[in-house]
Amino acid sequence: AKAGTDTIMFSSALLIFVQEVFGGIVLGALSGYIAFRLMRSIIDFQTIVLVSLALVMADSVIASLLHLSIPIAVVTAGLFAGSRSIDASSKEHSHQALEKFWELIDEMLNTVLFSMIGLQMVNFPFIDSYWRTGCIAIVVLLIARWLSIVLPLTFLRRTLKINYGSVNVLTWAGVRGGISIALALSLQIEARYKYLIVCATFFVVIFSIIFQGLTLKHLINYLYRKEEK
């Protein structure tokens, strides 16, 4: 009976995963193509911005109603719409302005996320187990990212030479920030281990931004000089 229950739970989880991921990709591809066709015929910059905003909001609402992954749907739509929509030379200024607009939105949302987690951290009990969990999470994530890069390359080593210097750079360049914080804060108040998860996320993000972000350039320069020798 237990084996049957485990099988049902696994199949249900797999079905939800397929629905969330592939459904989000399909939704994003369709909506992104529609936005691409619209933006292609628009010259006015303000209208282009409104179309891009409508694309994001529409995908968010539809994905939520259909129980699809909102981030995957929106990212897929952005890839379809943003990479090809405004490619004419006469619209180059509009393309650059649209990129600057969404960069500003990104910075504003990141600021809000970091402010929210900062306010929550004031009320969090920083007990010893949280500090240890945060440090362990940093090490585990670095090892996991290194393995996620090395393992696929081992299958291609006959045709592709593995440069471990590049692997180290890709590992160290995996800076984490807004998405990690948003996922941690989305947990319900009643969720078990919420404080532990949010604190671990806080440690990982701070380490990622301060240590990884500020030392990445020095790591690249060191490896470059080492290869020259």
Report on this structure.
This protein has 229 residues and is mainly α. It has 2 domains: 103 residues; 105 residues, no CATH class. Helix 1 runs parallel beside helix 3, helix 4 crosses helix 7 and helix 5 runs antiparallel to helix 6. The longest helix has 39 residues. The radius of gyration is 22 Å and the shape is globular. The model has no long low-confidence stretch (mean pLDDT 80).
Mean pLDDT: 80
- What would you call the quaternary organization? single chain
Report strand %. Answer: under 5%
What share of the residues lie within helices?
Answer: over 70%
Domain unit count? 2
Report the sheet with the most strands, covering strand number, pairing sense and barrel closure.
none
**What spatial form do the alpha-carbon principal axes imply?**
globular
SSE blueprint and pairings:
Layout: H1 2-40, H2 45-66, H3 70-82, H4 92-122, H5 128-154, H6 164-172, H7 178-185, H8 194-228
Helix pairs in contact: 1-2, 1-3, 2-3, 4-7, 5-6, 5-8, 7-8
Short key terms for the protein model shown above:
2 domains; mainly alpha; globular; 229 residues; 8 helices
Describe the structure in brief:
This protein has 229 residues and is mainly alpha-helical. 80% of the residues lie in helices and 0% in strands. The chain has helices at 2-40, 45-66, 70-82, 92-122, 128-154, 164-172, 178-185, 194-228.
